[in-house]
Amino acid sequence: MELTEMILKIRERMMDESLFESILKQYQEGSRAEGSGSSEEEYDAAKAGLPGLLSEEQLACLYEAEEICFEIAQWLAEFAFTRGVYAGFRQHFVHDAPANQFKTLVFDSVLQMPGMQSYPEYCARRDKANDCFVRSRKRVTHAAADKVLEIELAWQNRFLGVCRHAFPLGYHFALSLIRDAASDGVFVWEIE
Q: I need a surface site. Which of 45, 80, 84, 174 has the fewest CB within 10 A?
């Protein structure tokens, strides 16, 4: 097996679906715990109220948008995790590393323009999801359009949320590797 193939397999195993689901769940539970008006509660209410308000075609567009958003969130979690790993190593080995690496390495890079344009496939997926959300809101009542918008906004919040959870996970993973390498062969499990 080639080195590149082995590295890809390691990456696939590290950021598998169960780790992503755990990260997403962490965000969702935290969002719900913050109190009333959270985007997850609004998402649940909007989802419950939409089936009778949209046509089959509009519902299909909405479901497609959500499938794409789920895939985007998975990609963002892996992206933020690897940037967190980089930040952990950088913080340890570069003495003048910037303090707020999340903003530059993740937020400005993929959650805002023009940074996200550096990732054309990701940008195309975002555009396709946005188009599906727009098509699901066409020719509906204001109440239905507001519910679709709540779902879209919940996904935007999820994108940021999974990044905010995956980045420190990657950061602490890097620090654990550094501690392990510096511990004279004694594997350290605790993460501070």
A: 45
pLDDT at residue 171, as a whole number: 94
Single-letter residue type at 176: S
**Residue in the block written with tokens 């715990």:** 33
108-146 confidence digits (pLDDT tens): 999 999 999 999 999 999 999 999 999 999 989 999 999
**What gap in Å lies between CA 20 and CA 157, rounded to an integer?**
16
Q: Identify the residue with better confidence: 26 or 13.
A: 26
DSSP 32-97: HHT-TT-HHHHHHHHHHHSTTTS-HHHHHHHHHHHHHHHHHHHHHHHHHHHHHHHHHHHHHH-TT-
CA–CA distance from 48 to each of 22, 41, 42 (Å)?
Answer: 24, 11, 10
pLDDT confidence band for 9 (50 / 70 / 90): confident
Rounded to a whole number of angstroms, the CA Rg of the chain reads 19
Total count of residues recorded for the chain = 192
Neighbours of 121 (CB within 10 A): 8
> Which residue's entry shows tokens 């909405």?
62
Phi, psi of 92 (to 5 degrees): -75, -45
pTM of the model: 0.88
Residue indicated by tokens 């948008």: 65
